[in-house]
Amino acid sequence: MSIYDILKKLFLDGFSSADINIYIASAAMLVSCLIGLYIFLVYRVLTRKTFYSKTFNITLAAITVITTAVIVTIQSSFVVSLGMVGALSIVRFRTAVKDPMDLTFLFWAIVAGIICGVGMALIAITLSLILTIGIVVLDKLPVAKAPMILVVNTSDLDAEKRIMDTASKYAKHSTVKSRNMTGNSLDLIVELRTAAGSELLQDILQEEGVTSASLLSHDGEVTF
Question: Fewer CB within 10 Å: C terminus or N terminus of the chain?
Fold first, then answer.
């Protein structure tokens, strides 16, 4: 079998159990390895996390190649496929996926490996390109800005109304999320959106009894 025949079966025709040999299996795993490296780079570039997990990213690339090897092996022998299913059925994965985007990349790696394993590498490449474009475009779409959190500590237990009146000057909507009151202090947490955070803090600090004021931003979920 020539190089042309191997590439044709790998990218266009697909292959059956009768076609599988060491050259086709090696070529399939080589292509899946390249796709896995591509997924590795896309994950590194597109995910902007405070705690980037390099080990998870390496796992994505490895899973692509491993899945291809499993699919090729299952196709090569019916007996081996039954043994593989039995062996994999006892595996339990208990690592929690903390970010939904990680789940997307995980399925991407598995599906790309399966497609390469059945000899449809062109579909795997097309899938990778379309997914990359889709993720980039959706990531660039504007969304509502996450609200800011105003934390105020005051010794005046009746200062809530004055603080909220001051906040309403700089934000159209403000909501009290938490009140923590002791015998001589009041801790107030307010959710709001404002572009004049510095001016807001200065005005609140001028209120009688206010000892501290903080304005926090976050990148969590947005409430519409």
Answer: C
